[in-house]
Design brief:
By secondary structure, this protein is mostly helical. The chain contains 9 helices and no strands.
């Protein structure tokens, strides 16, 4: 068996040595896997979108308050046909009007959700830049020429330029810390050098360290992503507990207003006590005995009293369900971020080999088996992220 395995391995090595480029089917498989990885990454960014939008709205409101206290200088008249860019349209919304103050087409550019802050678009652009770089490198490694990759090269330049413009636009809420203005500017400059076939191959090799820095930035950014998601969920949990406290007051008022239960009413109240405290426990609230509160009032404890308690518990239990769902969703987001980090590390580990093959496909060959294995791992991680977020 060992001799047979050794013979098979030798045959594979001879086959790989004879190959001058990466077989197309393996390139396509890897590209498809990374496309799934890109979709999964954007799903994670969708998960913090609402929180970042909220933070941006707060920052905008604070900026308006500061601006309102400043003494106006020269009046600026905006031409009726003027451009709707960030200078004219700093943000959507007005302090008093129930409609947007202006229209900025940049806010509806492909790859971003309507009204999404720049800090989220920076993350999406960074991931898109890595994805496009990866696709170009793989296709060059398979033997395609730069002339056949015009659309991908233009897309890479567009993504890098957009990333540079957004990163250099000034302060934003929850920025992608690892992407400095200098790094983004170097990425944009580098993307503009992508020209003829050999220049493209050399440019990919030269740009590989920049892409690696982007990957590292996205990996480190997952701490910020979890903090944003955790803060968002924590606020929701607090709100649910506030609602639960109100129900608690209503139930205790009902029980206190009645005399102690008698006969079968004792067991009936005990059952409600269990349901009441089960819901409270699921929300992290302490035990509170309803039976101990009974007997303080003069009203008789009847079936109608039980119905009143049931009505309140029926309000409380859905809150406990929502509380648990929020906690579980946060834990799944945490696990999905772990898969995302592992996936980005996998991409980073293979980037150098792919780029080297893209620069000189006649001299360097990627093992098809290794590429397939890497594609499988990346695809599995991407699908696990989707599964966790869809649960």
């Amino acid at each position: 068996m060992r001799e047979r395995n050794a013979t098979a391995l030798a045959a594979i090595m001879l086959l790989l040595a004879a190959c001058s480029t990466v077989p197309v089917q393996h390139v396509e498989g890897y590209s498809q896997a990374f496309d799934e990885a890109s979709v999964a990454g954007n799903r994670l960014y969708d998960g913090i979108s609402a929180k970042v939008v909220q933070e941006q709205a707060i920052a905008n409101a604070q900026a308006e308050q500061v601006a309102a206290t400043q003494t106006p200088t020269n009046t600026v008249i905006v031409p009726a046909a003027g451009p709707a860019d960030s200078a004219v349209c700093p943000h959507n919304g007005g302090a008093s009007e129930p409609y947007p103050a202006c229209f900025d087409p940049a806010r509806f550019a492909p790859g971003r959700l309507a009204g999404e802050p720049d800090s989220l678009l920076v993350r999406r652009r960074a991931l898109a830049t890595i994805t496009t770089f990866n696709a170009i490198a793989l296709r060059l490694a398979s033997g395609e020429s730069a002339q056949e990759l015009g659309a991908e090269v233009r897309r890479l330049g567009s993504n890098a330029s957009s990333l540079a413009a957004l990163s250099g636009a000034g302060a934003m809420v929850s920025p992608l810390i690892g992407v400095t203005s200098d790094l983004a500017a170097r990425l944009a400059t580098w993307a503009e050098t992508l020209r003829a076939d050999q220049e493209l191959r050399a440019a990919l090799d030269a740009g590989s360290p920049l892409i690696e820095q982007l990957l590292v930035a996205l990996i480190k950014d997952t701490s910020t992503m979890y903090a944003l998601k955790r803060e968002e969920v924590a606020a929701k949990l607090v709100a649910l507990k506030v609602d639960a406290r109100e129900i608690e007051f209503d139930i205790t008022d009902i029980v206190r207003a009645h005399a102690a239960p008698q006969g079968p009413m004792v067991a009936e109240l005990a059952q409600r006590d269990l349901r009441f405290n089960n819901a409270r426990e699921r929300m992290g609230l302490g035990f509170q005995s309803l039976a101990a509160l009974a007997g303080q009032g003069g009203q008789p404890f009847t079936e109608r009293t039980l119905d009143q308690i049931d009505d309140q518990i029926a309000r409380l239990e859905p809150l406990a369900n929502q509380y648990e769902e929020q906690v579980q969703a946060l834990n799944r987001y945490y696990e999905a971020l772990g898969e995302y980090v592992a996936m980005l590390h996998e991409v980073n580990a293979t980037l150098a080999t792919v780029t080297a093959s893209a620069r000189a496909p006649q001299a360097v060959t990627i093992s098809p088996a290794a590429l397939s294995q890497q594609a499988t791992e990346i695809r599995d991680q991407a699908r696990e992220i989707q599964k966790l977020l869809d649960t």
